[in-house]
Here is the input.
Amino acid sequence: MKFEELGIEGVHLVRPQVFDDPRGAFLELFVGHRLSAHTGRPMDVAQVNCSVSTRGTIRGIHLTAAPPGEAKYVTCVSGSIIDVVVDVRVGSPTYGASLAIPLDDTQHHAPVHRRRPRARIRRGQRHRGRHLPV
Here is the structure.
C-alpha cells in the first residue's frame, strides 16, 4: 500500500497494490495497522456500509461537527464516483479548501478522512456506482 497526503490535514489517499493474474486480481482494500502506522492514529472499524448510486446521484453532504467525529475510508468497488472533501474547520489553515477525488473500480484508491470536522459529498459518475464507506 502507498499513502499520499492530499493537502488538507488528515486527508490521505491509499493506493493498494493490485496483484493481477489470468484469473483476475487480488488486493488488500484495508489494512488497519498499515493505515495507523502512516497516519499515527488507529482506525477502529465499527461499521461498514455499501451505497449504490445511479449516474448523477448526489449522496448528500455528510458532516461531523463535533470532535472527535468519524474517520471515513471510502472505496469504489463498481462503476465510478467522485468523493468530495471540504475543510469546514474554522481557524484551519485550509479552511474552505476542497478536494474532488475520482474513485473507480479499476484503480481501487481509497481516500481516508480522519476524525476532524469536514463535510463530504459523493456523486455517482457511471451507472450504478457501488462504493463502500467504512
Observations:
- The mean pLDDT is 77.
